Amino acid sequence: MIRDELEGVWHILLKDLKAYYFKPPNISWGILFPLVLALAFTLRNPAGLAELSPGLIAMAALFGTTSMEAIVITFEKRVGALERLIMAPVSLTTILVGKVLGGAVFGLVIAVVMTLISLIFLNAVVTYPLLFIAVLILTVLAHSALGALVAVSVKEVFEAQTLSNYFRFPMVFLCGVFLPVEAMPFPVQVIAHLFPLTYAVDAFRQVLIGPLYLSLMLRNVTALMVFFTIFLILATKLLKESLE
Amino acid sequence: MNDIITTQSLTKYYDSLLAVDHISMQVKEGEIFGFLGPNGAGKTTTIRMLVGLTTPNEGSATIKGYDIREEIVNVKRCVGVVPETSNLYNELTVWENLRFMAGMYHAPKNEREHRITSLLKTFGLTERRGAKFGGLSKGLKRRATIAAALVHHPDILFLDEPTSGLDVMSARSLRHFLRDLRETGVTVFLTTHYIEEADQLCDRIAIIVKGRIIAVDTPENLKAVIQGTSIIEASFTSKVESIAVEELEAYGKVEVKDNTLWIQVTDVSKSLKALTRFADDHGLEVAYMNTVKPSLEDAFVKLTGVESEIMLMEKERRGGGA
Description:
The complex is a heterodimer of chains A (about 240) and B (about 325).
Chain A: H1 2-21, H2 24-44, H3 49-79, H4 81-86, H5 92-121, H6 129-152, H7 157-174, H8 186-192, H9 196-208, H10 214-242
Helix pairs in contact in A: 1-5, 2-3, 2-5, 3-5, 3-6, 3-7, 3-9, 5-6, 5-10, 6-9, 6-10, 9-10
Chain B: E1 3-14, E2 17-28, E3 32-36, H1 43-50, E4 58-63, E5 66-67, H2 72-77, E6 79-82, H3 94-104, H4 109-122, H5 138-150, E7 156-160, H6 168-183, E8 187-192, H7 195-201, E9 204-209, E10 212-217, H8 219-223, E11 230-236, E12 252-257, E13 260-265, H9 268-281, E14 286-292, H10 296-304, H11 308-318
Parallel strand pairs in B: 3-8, 3-9, 6-7, 7-8
Antiparallel strand pairs in B: 1-2, 1-4, 4-5, 9-10, 11-13, 11-14, 12-13
Helix pairs in contact in B: 3-4, 3-5
C-alpha cells in the first residue's frame, strides 16, 4: 500500500507543477523576485554582500515556497478540486505531502536562482556544497509545510496571503536575515527560535561563510526536520477536521 | 443480487442542523439506484459520507463490505464519483486529467493508455483530448468528468445530479450510457431532481425528505402509492376561470392553467359526468378530454408534499445540491 501512497504523492506533485507552478508568469516571478532582492541589498550595502547571502537565500526559499503554495491549496479548496484528491484512494497525509513537495520544488527553484546570483554577483562561496544542498532541501520542505498549514486553516485565497504575511514579515526581521539573532535582545532571541527561518539562516551562514559548528548544525537540521513534521501533522489534522 | 451499499442509521449534523437523519437502506449490486428529494433533503450529504468527503456523526455504512469509517481507502478504490460540479483541472488537457485520475486511482500502468483512449471514444472526446478542460463547454466538461470517474473501472459509480445543466441531446446520450454501464455490472447511485429521469433510468428509487428516507421502491411500486386514483385532463376552447372550478373540488384535487384543467379523482365515470355538466353550465366548449395514469411525479408530490416544479425552480435558482 505504501507504493500506492507514493504513487499518489508523485501524481499530485506532477499535476501541481504542470497546472500551477511552472507557468511562465510564476517562473518569471521566481527569477525576478530574488534578482530584485539582491539588487536592493547591493545598492544598500555594497561592502558586505557576501555576508547577506545566507539570509537572502533563506528568504527566497521562504517566499518561494509559501507564496504560491498557499494560493494553490486555497484555490483548489475554493473550486472543489481538492475534494477530487480527497476522494482518491490515498491518505490525507499523502495529499498534503504531494502539495508540500510542489511548493518545495518551486521554492527550491527560486532559492537556487538566489544562490546563483549570490555566487556570481555577491561573491558568496559555498564552502560545504553537500551540506548546503541538504540545508536547502530541509529549508524549503519546512517552509512549504508551513505554507500548507496556513492554506488549510483558511477558506479564501486572500486570507491565505494575509495570514502568510503575519508569519513571513516578522520572520524576515527576527530570524537573522538582516541582523544576527545573537545581536538582538534576549526576549527577541527566544521568539526568533520559535521560527524555522532562524535555523535555516544560521545553517546557511555556517555552510556559506563559516565557521561550521557541528553541534549547532545538527541542532539546525533537527529543528528544520521537527518543524516540517509538526507543520505537516497539524495541516493533516486541520484538513481532517474540515471533513467532520 | 447482493447488497453492495448498506447504511444503518447513518446520520450527519452540521452544527445543530440535522442534515441526514438515521437513514438505513440497501443498494443492490448492478442496479441503478436513484436518490430523489427536494433541495436540502440530504442527498448530497449522504453521497459525501459514502465516498469519504465527510464523516458521519452516527450510524454505519459499508460499501462492497468495507466500512466507510475504518476502511475508507478501500471504499475509495471501488467507487467512482461524479460531483454536481465538473471539477477536473482547468489547466490540464482532457487527456492529462484522465491520466492523472488513472494514476491517483492506481489503474494498472499497462492498461492506462488503452482505457483512456476507449473512454474518450465512448464519450465523444477523442477530438478534444488535447483541449484544456477549462476551455470545454459545460456538456463536454460533464462528459470528461464522468470519463475520469470511470478510468479505474469502479464497481459503483456515484453521480450527483448527472444531467443538471446539460442540453437535451447530451442528457439523453448520458442516460443511454448509464443504462449501458449497468449492463456491464456497474452499480449506479445517482441523485437527481429530474423526476422523469429517475423514472426512466432507475431500477429503484429512495425518496428522501428532511434527511429521512420516506420510501424506497421501484418506480412502478412508488406510483402505486396513488393507485386507485386517475387524473382527468380537460382542455377547453376558452380560458377556465379558477374561481369557477371550486364546485369540481368535491370530486378531487383540481389544478387549472389557462384553457386546461386537471382533476385527480377516484371515480372517473362520475367525475367525467360532473365535468361535462360544469362545461355546459359555464358555456365552455370541450377541445379534448382524457384520463392519464399517475406519474412518479404525482407519487413524489404525494409522498413529499413538494411540488416538483417548485423543487426544480428552487434548485436552478440556488444552483447547488443539498
